[in-house]
Structure formats: structure tokens, C-alpha cells
Design goal:
single chain, 369 residues, Rossmann fold, 2 domains, seven-stranded mixed beta sheet, globular, binds beta-D-glucopyranose
């Protein structure tokens, strides 16, 4: 009897230790997580950049946090949010895989009294989003387009348009910004559109509706996928007549797609020169810029976005109202937002903008002047 009692108490002690160890695991000193962070995918360097910057920013904070990735799946994203809800989060920072689909995850969080911060990409059509931290995405598209306009070599230069995923609200903002600057130059014949009949049909319209943008984006989407971008570029060049080659301009929406599009255009003998845009200042694209294979990138300093998102989360946890600077309509409510400006980077300022600023180190790159 006594022996049995001893075994049972030993087992209880072991179980208790196991539970304590599990609680201490990932999340710091308690079993609870205060801030849950959900990012779209580890497959794109952009979001690994965000993870790294979050980890840097979280060192030494008193609040417990956990970062989960959705790996390009809205179902996985919902599962991640549920996991974090079960861990007792008070604030959810989430960059949606699909802006519409993520509304259900935000609703689930709201039901538990959790505050939701949309991170970089806006969650659409729900009132469950409390705040939005973002870069100025219209300015990203405008900067890309302005770069193309500044470098154009004459009248009638072929222009290839590419866009992000239609499930990402940002893809529309980037395109809207680009169209603001490109449209007058298309209408006056500086550029001739090479790869979108929908864009050609709308070329005299300065402001496009979301539906009109959808029509163009559906023809030239990369779905934020480098392979899809490569295949589309190949198809477009195969179909292009001789007068759509020579010196060309290419609106590529981000770095991952820009590199694969640049590779395809670079390999075509009938393309004499190309100017191609990008965004994110991914290391591989910074090297492409240094090597003259990608013309520019738009640097979005993720340190600032992370700082803003965590600052908001801490304000909420401390019972304060976060500071915002504007608002974005998500189709259901006007979401209070904090917006960060962006910086254009090309060969001329790559060192100053990305190395001297401490964002990257010179040793990350070859042939940096
Ligand atoms: C982000 C970009 C990123 C793209 C693809 C957008 O929502 O703002 O920085 O390149 O998604 O992941």
C-alpha cells in the first residue's frame, strides 16, 4: 500500500514537472502568450525578414510572444490563430495570406476579446480588425512607375505589366499607384502596353475602379510566385512581335518576381535593354541591383513596421490607445492605421540606403562599391 502510494506521488511529481517544462517552452516564463504573430509564408525572403526583425525587437520585452507561419494556406492561418487564441493571447498581429479569407480568423479572435492588428496587408470585409500597420503601398507603386518613366528612352517604348496576387489588397494599391504615374505616359504614347489587352482597353482612364483593376491584374498576375512570373514572362516574350522588344520597361511588383522576370528578359537576344522594378530590398535582389540585373527596389524598412506593430500591441496591453496617422477602408469599416514611408534604391544609393543605415552589412554582398 505504502509502495503504491510512493509510485503514484512520483508519477504526479513527474507529470507536474513535464507540465511546467511544456509551459516554459517557447513562450517564456508562463504558459500564456500575450501577443500572437501570424505571418504568411517562410518561402518568400520578405517574410523571413519580418520574422528576424520581430525576434530582434522582442529581445528583452516583458511580454511573451509567439510567431507562426501560415505557409501560403488560409486554412493553416486559421488553425494558427486558433492555437494562439487557446494560448490566451490578448493581441493578434496578423499578415493575412488572403485578405478576404482571413476575416474569419479575425472574427474568431474578436469573439474572445482579442485586439487584432492587420500587419502589412489589410484584412477585408470584417469589423474585427482594430488597427493596421503598413507601408505606404500606393507610394510603392508610384515609385516603381516613376522609375520607369524617368528611364524611358523615347516614344513608343514597350511596357510589360506584372502584378501581385489578387487575394492581397496590397496588389491593388501597388497597381493603383503605378497606374497613377504610368497612365498619362501610356495615353500620350510614351509607352505602348505589350501584354495586357485589358490595360490597353482602359488606357485613357486616369482612375480605375477596383473591378477594372481586377481585369488587368487577372491577366498579368504573378500570384506573388516567382515561377508563375517566369512562365508568364516567357509566354509574353514568345508572343511578342519584334516591335515589342528592343529597349523595354517592365513593371514587376516585387523582388521575388522581378528576379525571375529579369532572368527571362535578360536571356532574350531581341531585348536590347530592360528596366525592371521591384520592392522589398531582399538580399538576392540587392545583389541583382549591384550587378545591374534588376534596376531598382523599393526599400520598406521592416524594422519600423515591426516597431509600430509591437508598439501598438504594448499600448493595448498597457490599456492605452495606440497612436494612428490615418485610416483604410476594408469594405466594412474604416480601420485606424499607422503608415510608414518607403525609399527607392538603385545602384546610385544602394550602399547609403541599405548598408550605411545598418539594415544589412557590406559582407552580405559582392562587388559593392
Ligand atoms: C507585401 C510585399 C510582398 C508581397 C508578396 C505584399 O503584400 O507588401 O512586400 O513582396 O506581399 O509577399
Amino acid at each position: 500500500m505504502k509502495k503504491g502510494f510512493k509510485i503514484v506521488s512520483l508519477m504526479l511529481v513527474i507529470a507536474l514537472f513535464a507540465a511546467m517544462a511544456a509551459a516554459c517552452g517557447k513562450t517564456g516564463s508562463g504558459s500564456k502568450v500575450s501577443v500572437g504573430i501570424v505571418l504568411p509564408t517562410k518561402d518568400e525572403p520578405r517574410w523571413v525578414q519580418d520574422e528576424t526583425r520581430f525576434k530582434d525587437a522582442l529581445k528583452g520585452t516583458k511580454y511573451t510572444t509567439e510567431i507562426l507561419f501560415s505557409q501560403g494556406s488560409s486554412a493553416k492561418e486559421k488553425e494558427n490563430v486558433e492555437t494562439l487564441i487557446n494560448k490566451g493571447i490578448k493581441v493578434l498581429i496578423i499578415c493575412p495570406q488572403d485578405g478576404d479569407a482571413a476575416a474569419a480568423a479575425a472574427d474568431a479572435a474578436k469573439k474572445e476579446g482579442i485586439k487584432v492588428i492587420s500587419y502589412d496587408r489589410l484584412i477585408n470585409k470584417t469589423d474585427a480588425v482594430d488597427y493596421y500597420v503598413t507601408f505606404d503601398s500606393i507610394a510603392v507603386g508610384e515609385a516603381q512607375a516613376k522609375y520607369l518613366v524617368d528611364k524611358v528612352k523615347g516614344q513608343g517604348q514597350p511596357l510589360y505589366l506584372y502584378a501581385g496576387a489578387a487575394s492581397d489588397n496590397n496588389a491593388f494599391l501597388f497597381f493603383e499607384g503605378a497606374w497613377n504615374v504610368l497612365q498619362p505616359k501610356i495615353a500620350d504614347g510614351t509607352f505602348k502596353i505589350a501584354n495586357s489587352s485589358e490595360a490597353i482597353a482602359l488606357k485613357d482612364k486616369a482612375k480605375l475602379t477596383r473591378e477594372e483593376m481586377s481585369k488587368i491584374i487577372s491577366q498579368v498576375t504573378t500570384n506573388w510566385d516567382a515561377n508563375e512570373a517566369k512562365n508568364k514572362a516567357q509566354t509574353h516574350l514568345t508572343a511578342a512581335a519584334a516591335d515589342m522588344k528592343g529597349d523595354v520597361s517592365i513593371l514587376a511588383p516585387n523582388d521575388g518576381t522581378a528576379r525571375s522576370i529579369a532572368d527571362v528578359f535578360g536571356a532574350d537576344k531581341a531585348v536590347k535593354s530592360y528596366v525592371v522594378t521591384g520592392q522589398d530590398a531582399e538580399k538576392a535582389s540587392v545583389q541583382y541591383v549591384i550587378d545591374g540585373k534588376q534596376s531598382m527596389t523599393v526599400f520598406k524598412d521592416v524594422r519600423t513596421l515591426v516597431k509600430d506593430a509591437m508598439g501598438m500591441a504594448v499600448d493595448i496591453l498597457d490599456g492605452k490607445t495606440p497612436t494612428t496617422t490615418g485610416e483604410y477602408d476594408n469594405g466594412k469599416k474604416k480601420v485606424q492605421a499607422k503608415q510608414t514611408p518607403v525609399i527607392v534604391v538603385d545602384q546610385a544609393n544602394v550602399k547609403k540606403a541599405l548598408i550605411d543605415s545598418g539594415y544589412y552589412t557590406a559582407g552580405d554582398f559582392k562587388n559593392l562599391k
